[in-house]
Amino acid sequence: MAKVLCVLYDDPIDGYPTSYARDDLPVIDHYPGGQTTPTPEAVDFTPGRLLGSVSGELGLRAYLEAAGHTLVVTSDKDGEGSVFDRELVDADIVISQPFWPAYLTPERIAAAKNLKLAVTAGIGSDHVDLDSAISHGVTVAEVTYCNSISVAEHVVMMTLSLVRNYLPSHQVVLDGGWNIADCVARSYDLEGMHVGTVAAGRIGLAVLRRLAPFDVKLHYTDRHRLPEDVERELGLTWHESAEDMVPHCDVVTINAPLHPETEGLFGDKLLAQMKRGAYLINTARAKIVDRDAVDRALRSGQLAGYAGDVWFPQPAPADHPWRAMPHHGMTPHISGSSLSAQARYAAGTREILEAFFAGRPIRDEYLIVDGGALAGTGAHSYSVNK
Predict the structure, then answer these.
(1) Which end of the chain is least crowded, N or C, by CB within 10 Å?
(2) Are the CB atoms for 357 and 60 separated by under 8 Å?
(3) What would the pLDDT profile of 97-106 be if each residue is shown by its tens digit?
(4) Angle 61-8-81 from CA coordinates, rounded to 5°
(5) What are phi and psi of 71, to 5 degrees?
(6) Residues 133-149: pLDDT tens digits?
(7) What integer pLDDT is reported at residue 386 of this predicted model?
């Protein structure tokens, strides 16, 4: 029997919900491109409920305990003597989220002598030290594609919010004001702008498809070039690198995984190569940009706006400079944790566990590390230090 350690974010301040804004969710059984949504043997939750917080437990307790396994759920993951560190020592499986990551460092992996499987309830497994997982024989899996469209929608929302100066204008209403000039002095149309994505995988391509109807000029850079018919369909301009692309763009959105080649990519040098007054959207990973360089670029006017919902560390401390920098549209890491997405990543987590316990292969597209090497999606998206 296995011990499963699950790290989830805290319940709402007013307690776990007893009712919800909507009664149901649209039924989606596949993603763009044909990959099916998660197909566990069963689920013990109602789609549309809050599953990603501590009381939601990803809907796993009844399933795991009926099979004789132990489930420990906590939000306490940081600091000396955290519940996560205490329980990790003899855990067989760790489940974490990008939104509230339990960082599986080399030290933590070395201390977890029983650890066999690390599951990301969501997408993006950079909170797991992949080199250490490989060397210790730990399988790493994530629920690929479960919230890619959720994040793409968030990118579009943030792009429009910055360009149209929506958030400051809404604040005018909240403050009882009506000064139109203050609202529109930083408001522009997205139409006709040049928009580029750093990476055009599942999320980046979904962003491009959703922005195309706004009559913008679309650009992208990716280590894997898209098929010619897709480039033609969307009128895409491909660039060999971010350095080549950003001087052409009014809006740049980052949709790349975090790995050695992308860490720190947007520092002072690259930000200076962007058009003055460009907007930068980052729902990928915070460490792809230089925290203080972004702050400086906003204060100098080099960037007209920065929006994203990824921070480092997470949760971000109260004195994090991004909370106070001008012209930002930051949110906590929520883009991929809508109630719609939660139903998919909870079901996908159960599908992974069912396969693991039954000794069946985990879906190849869910795998990041397996058999002592990068595997599946991990081999496509990540790199390891040699």
Answers:
(1) C
(2) no
(3) 999 999 999 9
(4) 105
(5) -115, 125
(6) 999 999 999 999 999 99
(7) 45
Helix, strand, coil percentages (3-state) for the chain, rounded to 5, are 35, 15, 50
What type of residue is 193? Answer: M
- Rounded to whole angstroms, how far apart are CA atoms 213 and 360? 43
Active site residues: 147, 285, 314, 333
Q: What is the pTM of this model?
A: 0.95
At residue 285, does pLDDT exceed 70? yes
Q: Provide φ and ψ at 78, rounded to 5°.
A: -125, 160
pLDDT in tens, 5-53: 999 999 999 999 999 999 999 999 999 999 999 999 999 999 999 999 9
Residue 286, C-beta contacts closer than 8 angstroms, at least 6 positions apart: 308, 310, 311, 312, 314
Q: Would you give the DSSP letter of residue 313? A: S
pLDDT band at residue 381 under the 50/70/90 scheme: confident
Q: Which amino acid is at 43?
A: V
Amino acid found at 198: V
In whole angstroms, how far apart are CA 43 and each of 166, 168, 206, 351, 360? 39, 42, 28, 9, 19
Separation of alpha carbons 217 and 278, rounded Å: 14
Enter the DSSP assignment of 320: -
Neighbours of 55 (CB within 10 A): 15
Residues 362 and 355: beta-carbon distance below 8 Å: yes
The number of residues in the chain equals 386
| Amino acid letter, residue 219 | H
What are the backbone dihedrals phi and psi of residue 141, each rounded to the nearest 5 degrees, phi first? -140, 155
